[in-house]
Design goal:
It is built from 16 helices and 17 strands. By secondary structure, the chain is α/β, with parallel strands linked by helices. α10 packs parallel to α11. The termini are far apart. Bound molecules: iron/sulfur cluster. Iron/sulfur cluster binds next to α2.
Length: about 450
């Protein structure tokens, strides 16, 4: 259970020496309770107090990392049920399943697709995270060969190999990486936990829908020294998984039940009637509350929607995605090309830039630092006013790049044109369209004279 500031204070030295950077031990305790400071900042905490404080400060959901070739997927460490309470931190890893019984060419094609697929979304490159290799053949050599092929993606692996013989073959083939091994049950957990420890893998613990039994099993495995665990509570259907995943998240966060304080893994393809429904259930799992999602099918359309959905959910709404303020050249502009101004909110920038680019018209796009807000929001907040626009025009050095003296402002801030004329003597202020989609038509009428 998390400690309050006062409970933490009682464990601190109470000398108010200020070495932690805070004026008093009490102030430091309050920051620790709010998770805005690190215990290591105080050099004088006793070992005994350290043990108590570290135990209390441990995240309610353990952080699990799987990795390969420098690419890592982290799951866990979440602290809230709802995104409006605070940010969701670790995006669930999206893995695509291959079976070792599939023809070699089919496996290699899928591995290549997972490796190469990328979505360019508001300046971010969104990609899939890895391959889940299922030991369906029953033959360790065949499985090891499939794992080796999957490693060609250069992404983390999930080894779906509950049989210890197959698990060993897969782990040996994946040596040098940190995979996730699925799955330990009451029947096989001892050999699998030993293997996971020996090969530095994380281990999925699988239940049959009974959360008490699952909690008992994780405690047994933890007592045996294996702590990097992920939970597969058992159900596969939409309602069963939603119920189990929400209950586990609530128990971990609200009841501080450490035995269920681990990330979750989901298999949406096993809970729906056909491939067309898999993305729907995967979207549910991304929202509530999977840390790893294993997809049975790869299609660019499904991958695109899931990657964008995930990105939007796991973006801090208080920190808008921004582009660097400055001057952007579109379609090789020359000295006669129009000069347009917008804000540095990514979605605004890309909406404007894409429209200008697809119009084929060259242009200079000046991006003002509006703290990542869209045009109207920034204007209402006083972050995109005449002074800011004039500062952007002068600061970017656009005057030396164009022969004309015309600047196009967004239609939504037409009201600024008079004031802007005063701020930018010698410049003519043109009011552009309100919506980016109308820019191509507007630019057809452009004349530098
Ligand atoms: Fe108190 Fe430790 Fe901070 Fe000194 S460094 S003020 S003892 S918490």
């Amino acid at each position: 259970m998390a400690l309050t500031g006062l409970q933490i204070y009682k464990l601190l030295p109470k000398t108010n020496c200020k070495e932690c950077g805070f004026p008093t031990c009490l102030a430091f305790a309050m920051k620790l309770a709010a998770k805005q400071a690190e215990l290591s900042a105080c050099p004088y905490v006793s070992e005994e107090a350290k043990v108590q404080l570290e135990e209390a400060a441990a995240p309610p959901i353990r952080l699990i990392t799987v990795s390969s070739d420098g690419y890592k997927v982290e799951a866990g460490n979440e602290t809230v049920l709802f995104r409006h309470e605070k940010t969701f931190y670790h995006r669930p890893g999206l893995f695509v399943r291959v079976r070792d019984t599939q023809p070699v060419a089919e496996i290699e094609t899928l591995v290549q697709q997972v490796r190469d697929y990328a979505v360019d979304y508001v300046g971010l490159s969104l990609t899939l995270d890895g391959i889940a290799v299922e030991a369906a053949s029953g033959d360790p050599a065949t499985y090891a060969a499939a794992v080796k092929r999957a490693m060609g993606a250069g992404r983390p692996l999930i080894l779906l190999a509950p049989d210890p013989r197959m698990a060993r073959a897969g782990l040996e083939a994946a040596a040098g990486t940190h995979p996730l091994l699925w799955s330990a049950t009451a029947a096989n957990w001892q050999p699998l936990a030993e293997l996971a420890k020996a090969y530095k893998a994380s281990l999925v613990v699988r239940g049959d829908g009974d959360l008490s039994a699952l909690a008992g099993l994780t405690e047994q495995i933890k007592a045996a020294g294996m702590e990097d665990l992920v939970l597969d509570p058992g159900p596969r259907d939409p309602l069963g998984t939603l119920t189990a995943f929400v209950q586990i998240r609530r128990l971990a966060l609200k009841q501080n039940l450490r035995a269920l304080g681990y990330p979750l893994i989901a298999f949406p393809g096993e809970g729906v009637n056909g491939p067309q429904d898999e993305p729907l259930l995967a979207a549910q799992h991304i929202a509530k509350y999977a840390g790893f999602v294993v997809l049975d099918h790869f299609t660019p359309a499904a991958a695109y929607s899931l990657l964008v959905w995930r990105q939007n959910l796991f973006t801090d709404p208080q920190k808008p995605i921004q582009v660097e303020p400055g001057i952007y050249e579109i379609n090789n502009p020359g000295p006669e090309a129009p000069v347009m101004v917008t804000t540095n909110f990514s979605i605004t920038y890309f909406a404007v830039a894409n429209e200008v680019e697809s119009s084929g018209h060259p242009g200079w796009l000046l991006v003002a630092d509006a703290e990542g807000m869209s045009v109207l929001t920034a204007w209402a907040a006083g972050k995109f006013d005449a002074e800011k626009i004039a500062k952007t025009v002068k600061g970017t050095g656009i005057e030396s790049k164009v022969k004309h003296r015309k600047v196009i402002i967004p239609g939504h801030v037409a009201v600024l044109s008079g004031e802007l004329e005063e701020e930018l003597p010698g410049w003519q202020i043109l009011v552009g369209p309100r919506e980016a989609v109308d820019l191509p038509g507007f630019l057809k009428l452009w004349s530098p004279n």
